[in-house]
Amino acid sequence: MKYVFFQGCTTPQKENAYELSMRKVAAKLGIELVTLEEQNCCGFFVEPVDHLSATIMAARDLALFDASGLNAVTPCPACYGQLTRVRNELLADKKLFDEVNSALKTVDRKFVGTSEIKHFMTVLIDEVGMEKIKASVVKPLSNLKVAPFYGCHILKPSYEVNTDNPEDPQLLDSLIALTGAKLVDYGEKKLCCGQSVGGVDEELSLNLSKTKLKSIKKAGADVMVTVCPACHMQFDLVAGAKLRDLAIPVLHYTQLLGLAQGLSPSELGLGENRVSTDAILEMIGMV
Amino acid sequence: MKEEKDSSKQAPAMVDVFLCDCGHELSRVIDFGQLEEHVSNIKSVKSVRKCSFLCSDLGLNELKAVAKNGAQRLVIAACSPKLYEPLFRQSLKAVDFDPFMLEMANIREQCAWPNADDSLGATEKAKRLVEAAVAKAQMIESVGEQGFDIEKAVLVIGAGVAGLQAAIDAGDFGHKVTLIEKEPVIGGNALKLGLAFPTDDGAFCISPSKLVPSIRKCFYRVGLLQHPNIKVRTLSEVEEVNGSCGNFNVKIMSNPRGVDQRLCTNCGKCAEVCPVEIANAFNYGLNKRKAIYLPHPNAVPPVYVIDWKSCTKCGKCAETCPAHAVDLYEKSTQTKENFGAIVIATGFQEYDPSGIKQYKYSVDKDVITQLELSRILDPFGPTGGQLVKPSDGKPPKRITMVQCVGSRDTSTNAYCSKICCMVALKHSILIKETYGRDVEVYFCYMDIRTPGKGYEEYFSRARALGVTFIRGKPSEIYRDPSKNCLIVDVEDTILNMPLELETDLAVLSVAMRPTKGIENLTKALGVEVDCDGFVKEVYPKLRQTETNVKGIYVCGGAQAPKDIPESVTQAEAVAFHVISDLSKKTYQKSLDIAFVKEEACDGCKICVDACPFDAIEIVEVEKTADHKSSSVARINAIRCDRCGTCSGRCPTGAIQLRRYTDDQAMNQISALLSPNNGILSPKIVAFCCDECGYATVDLVGMGKIKYPANILPVRTPCLNWISLYHIFKTFEHGADGVLLVGCKIGKCQHLNVEANAEKTVKFAKDIMDEIGLNGDRLEMISVCAAEPTRFTRAAESLVSVTKKIGPVPKNGILREDLSKQVMKEGS
Amino acid sequence: MVQKAGLLIEEPIRTAKLNAEFKFEIAKVPGGETINHCFQCGKCTASCPIRRFDKRYNPRVIIRATLLGMKDVVLSSPIIWMCATCYSCSERCPQGVRFTDIMRVIRNMAVAEGKVNPFYKKTAEAIIQFGRTFDSPDFINEMRCDLGLPPVTSLDRQEIAKIIGELKVNRSKESLNK
After folding, report:
1. A242 in a domain, yes or no?
2. Cβ distance B1 to B145 under 8 Å?
3. Chain centroid to CA B121: how far?
């Protein structure tokens, strides 16, 4: 299993522990991640201002993937959604396909559409499989009570990213269960984290996060697990700073799985987490 | 059955022609002197007679005299055949002249009237039309009729209100009816409803029988089982169907009841001693029943039944039964019976909303459907009519109706299910009238639809009783454990504010779907279903009860969502069809239908798949040296609807339509288009389908709306009949343009939903562009007679386009090599 | 003038002053095709997490104003920049109205008229200029080196500018030809 690794912007800028833990877990499961040079932003935050520019930016990345001959995997669901959507749009609209390729031609690039886009979670489920992941767990985290948080872009819109049922998602729950941890269901499981609206109205985005954290606290979870760097940033960095009394430790799923696979906290970049993970590391005997 | 006269081996028939000028009306435009002279010079014309009112008694007598006097073929040039062709045929039959040896030329509605300002053109056109009619008449063959026996027996599948009505009506008339029902009791969904709108009385109710006085209203009046002409078979289903209208051979499987209908006294002792207790599916699991049970007090037949899946065969019931009615080893029976007609009345089921996860159906016990609420409110139901929550049996203080669940939703069922507003209103009113202020009722809707007679009152009554109506579609239903109730998130779109509705019971008004098992049944019957799975009607505007298979009818919820009044009325309509079908001694079918030249057929099956009426099958014949294949197509005479679709699709020309064979048609076209004297130039042949196409052109003429005389109309059975061969041969014979005029796509009564003609035209246009003939010469329009200008505009446009392009080259063939190749490939 | 959710609307609404073309303009842009299917059931609004915490933002009202033709009101409103693109609305709409994509089309139209939220403007401009959300990767690479990660990938930002320019030039040539 070999993939082109598409970093996105958020992960290298703010969530390097996600990339670190992902690389470590990938190595354990036999997934080869190839760093592709010349990656640019997928265009997700350009869309609201200029769809055309965003499309060609995404197309350039898609052209890079096609040239590599490999499928691409990304840690960020927004990139996953954006790249998937643009790829689908280009393959369905011949006129747009020709337009974009004629622009790409001027820099010697070509979009074909052979490479598929995957999110790391979908690779784990579809390519690696539950059995193999379970087999890699050497240290079941049975003392941990985990609140899963999918975020929005890995699940919706289901007509573009068909990973799981957005109304009753179960896949991340299953992945967490494989580590031996206990799942905690909470009322606001499907609520958006509010990250995307933070730049426009910080108080609004904090209200969303606050409501979510209250619900998780009520349900009695020790730790939150995310699959999106932006969601992680919202609950670790932002809530960690602005909602101190509500914030709980937030782990990337790859960090949780890595711990269960016997990797050390420092190997998984737990030191980077702003909300201290000491309490949960103690619970699993890994101080 | 008369033998087909092989016209090619005998001397060609001679034609006697009548030219009627409709009381000098037509001779004001058409020069009848010229016309008469021209027609008399046609080689195959024996005589030409001018007359004024051929349709009068005098005229008809003259017609009959000629027919009696050794005439072989007749041509009448007059008004539209749609007016008097039947009258003329009747008159001919009266003097023993084959009524189908007559061809009419329409020189009034399709010539003199629309071309009243162009005497020269109209006269030339009349000459063309009469010549074409003569050419066609020469080649018409005699076909005769075939009589088919009709079994005077009707099979009604499904004993809900629709099936019961159809069965009783047919049975009252005197036909033998077999009414089968897959459940152990009759009544269908009506048995579960309790009260029904708009009368607010029992749903398990039927209209009076005209024959058996005791059959009226409540089901339990055993009169149904004593009807002399109706045999009720419960626990029965259709397994296999063969044959056609008048003679369907049906295999019916009856599952064992385990209790003898003749002996059971309905005492209930068996159920008392039965050790097996399971969830009662009739009441949606809200209570339990035994493995031997009676579904409902109003059960007909009033006999207990054994649920074999749960029965442990312990034998206690058999021991206890005082009437010795229990037979634990009863076998299922299979019968094969013949029926003249079949009625599909299988009804509907509620859509299962478990897939709509945000509403938590099948996750939370207090989220139920309207039918489940019916069971709760029914005094004969699991709670004795007490309104309680399924979760804890306590009375709810607040109930919320959620409308359009799974309906009007592009991701589930796009259609509106018609009855849910009324059902929910009915329940709301019932609850408010019983419990008053003790129960608050909320009603979340998108639109309130109360279209029937006496229906709007339900909406008014509900408001008067204080039901709270909220215009908004809920996004989510979830339980709040701290408040021990459900929360419904919905936007009050009228107040423009979000509502967090606390409710104890959420009732989902789910979509109406065809009943389970409809796919297997329709497949066995060969009946088409529509895109939503309901049985497909032939013509939605006027013929909702007929299916694509002659002799099989549909009524009630099986055809589309509808309420009791409509279901019953439709059932009466079906009964009329059935009675009418079965009242004849034999079914006489005129054999001017499709036929197969078996030697030319190579068994490719294209016709079998294309036939909308399931009228063609492949049979094995003895292969002689002349035969291409031993598997050949054969036409089922009863089912054939004479559309010509098979002929239009056939690649070898083996399958043809009587009176519209390729040879006849091309002979007609050739005569229509010759000679090239330049008077009507360009020449446009307009193929008009015999339904809306021809009628539209007629009505344009009757409205005296003008269009160019260059348009030469030709009557065709259905545009599906037209193939590439016809189109290209028409150009070869001298047409400069071809116009296809047919019914609206998808609304054709020959079920032309695949738009075969459209595909043929598109393909032809592409080829014409390739070979330099220019595809713009060919056009197709979909019209109805209420849109005359669509035709006239298309006619004018095509004339001006062909004028601009110029005439087709003299010999009609542009590139001999290419056109030969194309003809071979395209056919 | 009245406040309807976050939209400032002149009362009474004079339909003669409304822009009947507005909804068709949106429907013509890829992503906006489904706008006319809305039948105002309100399920989107009931599902919206932003709306839940800020009553000014109301998806149904935005569509309603758009379908009525209130082009200026909608494009000038600050609330069109509040959508978090969570897609809950698009997911649940019974008529398949892709509200999130329509929001993007409306936003693009507002930008074309010079009306854009400063945060979005700043972010997009930076991304187009740098090819990603950050300019110099030096500080980031220091962090990454400490963690044992390879430095962030190289990037020729001129290429980005070039292809965006090419695409736009070709598009405008085409619309001139039409």
Report:
1. yes
2. yes
3. 42
Domain of residue C69, residue span = 2-112
By 3-state DSSP, what share of chain C in percent is helix, strand and coil, each rounded to 5?
Answer: 60, 5, 35
Q: How many CB atoms lie within 10 A of CB B383?
A: 18
For testing the chain C interface, which of B448, B493, B497, B499 should be mutated: the one with the most C CBs within 10 Å?
Answer: B493
| Minimal C-alpha gap between B352 and chain A (Å) | 17
Domain that holds residue B618: 593-657
Q: How confident is the model at residue B1 (pLDDT cuts 50, 70, 90)?
A: very low
- What tokens appear for A236 in the block? 């670790």
C129 contacts on A by Cβ (under 8 Å): none
Residues forming a β-bridge with B252: B238, B335
Asked if B504 and C58 count as a contact pair (C-beta separation under 8 A), the reply is no
Q: What is the pLDDT of residues B24-62, one digit of tens each?
A: 999 999 999 999 999 999 999 999 999 999 999 999 999
Q: Are A99 and C167 within 8 A, CB to CB?
A: yes
| Closest CA of chain B from C42, distance in Å | 5
Q: What 8-state DSSP symbol labels residue B180?
A: E
For residue B781, what are its two tokens?
Answer: 């329009």
Element (H, E) at B337: strand B333-339
Does residue B820 register a pLDDT over 70? no
Cβ-Cβ pairs closer than 8 A, B with C, add up to: 60
C5: closest chain B residue by CA: B496
In this complex, the chains that touch C, judged by 3 or more CB pairs closer than 8 A, are A, B
pLDDT, one tens digit per residue, over B413-436 is 999 999 999 999 999 999 999 999
Bridge partners, B237 (sequence order): B253
Q: Same domain for A194 and A216?
A: yes
Distance (Å, rounded) from C-alpha B676 to C-alpha B681?
Answer: 8
Bridge-partner residues for B401, per DSSP? B443, B507
* Alpha carbon distance B303, B267 (integer Å): 10
Q: How many domains does chain B have?
A: 6
Say yes or no: C20 and C98 in one domain. Answer: yes
Q: Does B358 touch chain A (CB under 8 A)?
A: yes
Q: Looking at the partner chain, which of C31, C137, C159 has a beta carbon nearest the beta carbon of A107?
A: C159
Domain boundary among C89, C112, C135: C112
Show the tokens assigned to C135.
Answer: 């300019």
pLDDT for B2 equals 37
Q: Are residue B734 and residue B621 in the same domain, yes or no?
A: no
CA dist., res. C176 & res. C178, Å (int): 5
Tell me the shortest Cα–Cα distance from C154 to chain B, in angstroms. 44
Q: Which residues contact B11 (CB under 8 A, 6 or more apart)?
A: none
B530-556 burial: b if 16+ Cβ within 10 Å, else e: eeeebbbbbeeeeebbbbbbbbbbbbb
> How crowded is residue B596: how many other Cβ atoms within 10 Å of its Cβ?
19
Does B575 lie in the same domain as B647?
A: no
Contact B155, B342 (CB under 8 A): yes
B 156-215 → A contacts, CB under 8 A:
none
Kindly report the CATH number assigned to the domain that includes residue A89. Answer: 1.20.1050.140
Name every residue whose Cβ is closer than 8 Å to that of residue A253 and which is 6 or more positions away in sequence. A121, A172, A175, A176, A225, A226, A227
Q: Label residue B680 by pLDDT band (50, 70, 90).
A: confident
Judging contacts by C-beta atoms under 8 Å, the chain A residues touching residue B478 are: 187
Q: What is the CATH number of the domain that holds C79?
A: 1.10.1060.10
Give A35's strand partners: A5
- Count CB-CB contacts under 10 A for residue B648: 25
Number of H helices, E strands in chain B: 22, 40
Cis peptide bond upstream of B682, omega within 30: yes
ipTM exceeding cut-off 0.85 for this assembly:
yes
Whether residues B242 and B274 fall in one domain:
no
SS3 B27: helix
Q: Hey, are the CB atoms on C42 and B471 less than 8 Å from each other? A: yes
